[in-house]
Specification:
globular, Amino acid/polyamine transporter I, 18 helices, 77% helix, mainly alpha
């Protein structure tokens, strides 16, 4: 068992709270727009099957590895990697994995806060009836005019970061747990209500077919690689969040059962999001756009043309905002935990300091859509695109790859077997195969695909 059974930062009060917290970290903006669209464009049910297989073979083993490290170390990702490398008599350079994860999470939060601020803004816009009866041109212009007004974007970016700082500053039991207890059940209820609403939209059959009809002919090699990549990214792997949350996990909880439950919840939310979005899109004769266009142009337009659209459109963006908050608090936690350990500082002061630094960095992403839109750091990448590329396409897959190598080949097998409750039978052999061979190779393929795609 771990050197200590209790983290100095606090503990989740139950295994179920850890499941909700980790699922909250995993469930984010990508679940709501990216996964449903990728499924629909790549053979529907065929893509979903490949995706689930990739989650089982790549995502779950890496997540188990992160939770294992966190619970064994009971420290921030940086100090956990330092401590376990020393215990395993490995190179002290393994601590770089912790640093990279913490930095990646910090970078992602800087621009994630900006995008989540857009969701906050659209809660208000849907609630006040701005899009009632609107046409496509109005919806597009509304989004574009918002992006070119930096002070509006800064206001919502600031508000979202302030909410994140407030929650994280209050600690594990009074902050993170309270937020998770409120936001996650509400998110699930809103999702169920919105699925029910979409079933009355008139386009449910078409939306369901778009996502779930098995069309293997439309599943290309590129589609398989997309499934592999999303299986890795959707579970918040490689950014230190899951390792940090694992440090607060009760010692009696089963890592395997817990991680599978998290993966199931994450996938169900992604599938349900598709059943909310696409029936409404098709019922209104709209094209299923991708990325910000789907969330901030197509959906407001669709809700504006439907009965009770103001009510349910507002609920939709509240759901998006809640999903963003549960992810954001997990992105700030790893860096905060390290600084509290390093300087024995008060948690709320560290949270405010880190939040302000992250907010300042986020201004670069805000300005990428207006003042700095013609400024490029590398090739066609502006500030926002560069930070996104560096963190998501390089640091996360590289971090995930090193984590499974560390657990599979460096951490003493006695520690792994005790944390994972493994015997010397088939389960142990299957675990060794997944964590030593299958998952590392899978992440390398994802990493290579991301790099190759960016160069072509």
């Amino acid at each position: 068992m771990a050197a200590t059974d209790v983290s100095k930062h606090g503990m989740w009060s139950s295994q179920w709270l850890f499941v909700l917290a980790a699922a909250g970290s995993a469930v984010g903006l990508g679940n709501i727009w990216k996964f449903p669209y990728m499924a629909g464009e790549n053979g529907g049910g065929a893509f979903v099957v490949v995706y689930l297989l990739c989650v089982a073979l790549i995502g779950i083993p890496i997540m188990m590895s992160e939770v294992l490290l966190g619970r064994e170390g009971r420290l921030s990702p940086i100090n956990t990697m330092r401590s376990l490398a020393l215990k395993a008599k490995g190179s002290p350079l393994w601590v770089i994995v912790g640093w990279m994860g913490v930095l990646a999470g910090f970078l992602i939060l800087s621009y994630y806060s900006m995008i989540a601020g857009w969701a906050f803004h659209y809660v208000l816009r849907l609630a006040d009836g701005t899009f009632t009866g609107a046409d496509g041109e109005f919806a597009s212009q509304a989004f574009e005019s918002f992006l070119v007004q930096p002070w509006q974007m800064i206001f919502w970016h600031t508000l979202f970061m302030a909410v994140t700082i407030f929650i994280v500053a209050r600690g594990v039991s009074r902050g993170l747990e309270v937020a998770i207890k409120i936001f996650m059940p509400t998110l699930f209820v809103l999702m169920i209500v919105l699925v029910g609403y979409s079933m009355t939209s008139g386009g449910f059959a078409e939306g369901f077919a778009f996502m779930f009809n098995f069309d293997w002919a439309r599943l290309s090699v590129d589609g398989v690689l997309q499934a592999m990549g999303h299986a890795f990214f959707t579970l918040s792997l490689g950014m230190g969040a899951i390792m940090a949350y694992g440090a607060y996990m009760p010692g009696s909880a089963s890592i395997a059962k817990t991680v599978v439950a998290i993966a199931v919840l994450d996938t169900l939310v992604a599938l349900a999001a598709g059943l909310v979005i696409f029936p409404i899109v098709f019922a209104n004769g709209l094209e299923p756009g991708q990325g910000p266009g789907l969330m901030f142009v197509t959906m407001p337009l669709a809700f504006g043309q439907m009965p009770l659209g103001t009510l349910f459109g507002t609920a939709f963006f509240v759901l998006v905002s809640f999903a963003a908050i549960t992810s954001a608090i997990s992105l700030l936690e790893p860096a905060l935990a390290f600084l509290v350990e390093r300087y024995n500082a008060q948690r709320h002061r560290v949270a405010i300091s880190l939040g302000v630094l992250c907010w300042v960095l986020g201004l670069g992403s805000v300005f990428s859509f207006n003042y700095w839109k013609d400024f490029h750091i590398v090739r066609e990448l502006n500030f926002f695109s560069f930070v996104d590329y560096l963190s998501a396409n390089v640091m996360l897959p590289l971090g995930g790859f090193l984590i499974v190598l560390f657990v599979g080949w460096v951490v003493p097998r006695a520690i792994v077997e005790e944390q994972m409750s493994l015997s010397r039978g088939f389960r142990n052999i299957a675990w060794q195969l997944l964590v030593r061979v299958v998952a590392p190779v899978g992440v390398l393929v994802v990493f290579g695909y991301q790099i190759y795609g960016s160069l072509n």
